[in-house]
Amino acid sequence: MTGLRRALASTLVALLLAGAAGGARAGNQQYEPLAASVQAALHAAVADQAPLDASFQRSPERARWLAEMSQRLARRIPDETSRSELLRAVHYEATRAGLDPQLVLGLIQVESGFKKYALSTAGARGYMQVMPFWTRLIGNQESNLFHMRTNLRFGCTILRHYLDIEKGDLFRALGRYNGSLGRAEYPNLVRGAWERNWSYTTIRLAQNP
Questions:
Q1: For the segment 21-75, what is each residue's pLDDT rounded down to a tens digit?
Q2: Which of 24, 75, 80, 144 could cross-link 118 (Cys pair, CB 3.0–4.6 Å)?
């Protein structure tokens, strides 16, 4: 192999590795017209910017969850403050949308590899790889999909919407989320990440008599 070919091959490998490191696996969430009532409900869901609650300080169980998930996430996000901020927000937004926080962590792992500024070739953005058309559809011109809570709020609201459309069928809802409805690869990836890396059993404390 000549020096030029070697250099070109090295450059190609580096580009491929850089693309893989970005972790953005999102497909292309499909734009679908929404009924006015659905659009209004989704807009209201993403517009509520109530502060995160203080339940982690009041609840020993949630504190244990935070400590456990933080330990698992440490390799991906070394800074403890950043990990804690993300995990608290994931728990809040997932619970608010009626989703399992561990499912959302699995989805983030597959979609963005926990890269805040991940950008897919389809244009999906942030931790949960939300397509920009959603900001026009249910957000506003100030909606920044690279902002942590905004991204999580949109992502959880959209997944909840797809679950409602599919009457609780997670396989189909995840397919819609990724723009790959009917194909098994993406739902299986998310389920695998969820069960392998983020599964968590709640510990019930005995109640005082």
A1: 344 555 567 788 788 888 898 998 888 776 666 667 778 888 999 999 999 999 9
A2: 24
Count the residues in the chain. Answer: 209
Determine the residue type at 32: E
Half-sphere exposure of 1 (CA within 13 A, CB side): 8
The token pair at 11 is 């450059």
Can you list the domains of the chain with their CATH numbers? Answer: 25-198 (1.10.530)
DSSP strand E in 68-138: where? none
CB 109 within 8 A of CB 193: yes
C-alpha dihedral, 133 to 24 to 107 to 146, nearest 10°: -50
Per the DSSP assignment, residues forming a β-bridge with 147 are none
- Name the amino acid, one letter, at 103: L
Residue whose structure tokens are 């005995």? 206
* Cβ 150 vs Cβ 144: under 8 Å: yes
pTM: 0.82
User: 3-state DSSP call for residue 39?
Assistant: helix
